[in-house]
Amino acid sequence: MFTSVLMIEKALTSADVEFVTTLHGDEEVSFHVLLQPRGDQADRLLRAIDDVAMGELDEAARERDVPEGDEAKEPGGQALEVSLTALHQAGCAAEGRLIEDHPLDALKGLVDEVKADEVIVLTDPHYVEEFFHRDWASRARHKVGVPVLKLFSYNKA
Q1: pLDDT grade, residue 32 (50/70/90)?
Q2: Whether the Cβ atoms of residue 151 and residue 19 lie closer than 8 Å to each other
Q3: pLDDT computed for residue 123 by the predictor
Q4: Backbone angles phi, psi at 27, to 5 degrees
Q5: Is the per-residue pLDDT at 86 higher than 70?
Q6: Bridge partners of 2?
Q7: Is residue 31 a contact partner of residue 56, using CB atoms and an 8 Å limit?
């Protein structure tokens, strides 16, 4: 069985589930999902810039209304449960947890714990971080010791 650590920032859509569950053809895959709840207010500006860069001005304006920090844990937990249920319905073994500490430390710890074969980072585009190679996938490649695949999540549910 192939073991993947799947790092996400929002609930998986049906298209996301189909995408990640078919990456390895007919080989059985077990997923260990890490969900990063929304960060603190410092991240809000970067997300708004990403929204503007993608032409989603309405989304940029709504950034101030989205829960962050401790307030984001409950919606994050719900998004994790939705994602695990979707992976189970697709016939995959899956378990998950919210990231409570530094994301890269949590990722490295889980990769070592489950002896993962790969890491999949599935996120929305983050142009500022990607330009400076400060996005999670770029940073994880130097830390986790297994291949890291960066995928963009499907935006429509």
Answers
A1: very high
A2: yes
A3: 84
A4: -70, 140
A5: yes
A6: 29
A7: no
